[in-house]
Description:
Blueprint: H1 16-35, H2 62-69, H3 76-88, H4 92-96, E1 103-105, E2 111-116, E3 123-127, H5 130-134, H6 155-163, H7 173-185, H8 190-196, H9 202-211, H10 214-222
Antiparallel strand pairs: 1-2, 2-3
Helix pairs in contact: 3-7, 7-9, 8-9
Amino acid sequence: MLRSLQLKHSNRPISLNSASGYYSTFRGLLKIAYRDKWLRENINDYLDKIEPQDVKKEYLTLDEVKQLAATPCDLPVLKAASLFACLTGLRISDILNLQWEDFALAPDQGYCLRIRTQKTQTEATLPISYEAYELCGTPGTGKVFKELKRSMINYPLKNWLKKAGITKPITFHGFRHSYAVIQISLGTDIYTVSKMLTHKNVSTTQIYADLVNTKKRETANKISLK
């Protein structure tokens, strides 16, 4: 199969999963064109799919998140935003765009966020803990994490993780994975976790449940040669 090159890094091919996503969008456009009579035939009937590969999701355990929280970071805003991601599951795009106007008090007097997610354009009301709210600093106007830059989630983040003694290849998006896995491991049902992550389909969240499936562990330990 021919591999296309990235637009931003023209010397690198796009990943199989990126190709699968782009191709799926293209097939969706063809479907709409056929539905609206722009095409006489459904061309999708003649096209093969590009099947995505399963990607290993790296995440931190609760103890590792606590370990990271106890480690000083050269960029305080990076530390605050990272821990905020661990406590809320928000993507970096939503954290970068988070406004003080997005916070509201819920009827139970707890804090919540009313946002439209950048990636999926999903309208969501998400309860957050007071601990997560405290990480945002002194309330004001405009952006919450004003000094946060996307460039900080590369080498500065790696250096902080290394200083904390964490050797896993964790990216900022790994904090979102960490939130999901920790919630499920603590007993939160998958439907609620799916809603908190603003997944459109619970099946997307299922992979996190598989990572902490206690039944699988029990099954693995049932057969013993000792």
